[in-house]
Design a protein that fits this description.
With about 250 residues, the protein is of the alpha+beta class. It folds into 3 domains: about 5-60, Structural Genomics Hypothetical 15.5 Kd Protein In mrcA-pckA Intergenic Region, Chain A, CATH 3.10.290.10; about 65-130 and about 215-250, Pseudouridine synthase I, catalytic domain, N-terminal subdomain (Alpha-Beta Plaits), CATH 3.30.70; about 135-210, Pseudouridine synthase (2-Layer Sandwich). Helix content is about 25%, strand content about 30%. It contains 7 helices and 17 strands. β13 and β14 (about 180-185) form a beta hairpin. α1 packs across α2 (about 20-25).
């Protein structure tokens, strides 16, 4: 590693996300070098001598890849650092190794499985729409359910960010005042499920992600985390590779 490198590259080497994402972190004023806030992405850093912090946490270039499954509690934002000082997913997970970042998003009022890693390449592929990696959710809504709702969800609904469509939707339980759905998505649009159900006249009471690709939330409880098993990691990589080869054949 050279004696001095640009700040945005240094942060990327710390596995804080893509270079563009790291530039955004700097521009927000969330980075300190030797106790002074810096906002210029071209600032030079000496990795051997300078102390670099992001939102008060010391960060260092990472060489070992880390893969984690965690249960995000409700009320926590999925971001590396929040300019509004809200509780982030890293704040809520005690003892998580430094240098990891969330894979994709899960809105503040939702809960359940979130993946964390310092592997930017795998993270990009898991979240890019072209790879269509499945995410599975349990969703509790006010009011009863019917087959028409399932057809709307899988047929496609226009929401704020464009056309949204569930790959699968299934009724788990149904009562006059409350229903439970299992919904599978292959894209991670912002507040996608909530807006789809709101467009159908349904208010979401609880939204919990239970699976991301080959990884299930299992017995994790809010605020708990664990390292991925070899089989889980192999499963994620197989999904990405399979999707990539499928696109090549199309």
């Amino acid at each position: 590693m050279p004696a001095r490198i640009r700040l945005n590259k240094f942060l990327r080497d710390c596995r804080l996300g893509s270079r563009r994402k790291c530039e955004h972190i700097v521009e927000q004023g969330l980075v300190e070098i030797n106790g002074e806030i810096v906002t210029q992405i071209a600032t030079l850093v000496d990795p051997e001598k300078d102390v670099v912090k992001v939102s008060g946490r010391i960060v260092k270039p990472q060489s070992t890849k880390i893969y984690i499954a965690a249960y995000k509690p409700r009320g926590v934002v999925v971001t590396l650092a929040d300019p509004h000082a809200r509780l982030t997913v890293l704040d809520a997970l005690e003892g998580v190794p430094e240098g990891v970042f969330p894979v994709g998003r899960l809105d503040k009022e939702s809960e359940g499985l979130i993946l964390l890693t310092n592997d930017g390449k795998l993270s990009h592929r898991l979240t890019h729409p072209r790879y269509a990696i499945e995410r599975v959710y349990l969703v509790e809504v006010d009011g009863g359910l019917d087959r028409d709702l399932l057809e709307k969800l899988t047929g496609g609904i226009v929401i704020q960010s464009g056309l949204a469509r569930a790959k699968n939707a299934k009724i788990i339980s149904d009562a006059r005042d409350q229903g439970l759905l299992k919904i599978t998505l292959t894209e991670g649009k912002k507040r996608e499920i909530r807006e789809m159900l709101e467009a159908c006249g349904k208010r979401v009471v609880m939204l919990k992600r239970i699976r991301f690709g080959s990884v299930a939330v299992g017995d994790l409880r809010p605020g708990e985390w664990r390292y991925l098993t070899r089989d889980e990691l192999r499963g994620l990589r197989r999904l990405v590779e399979s999707a990539y080869l499928k696109k090549l054949r199309e």
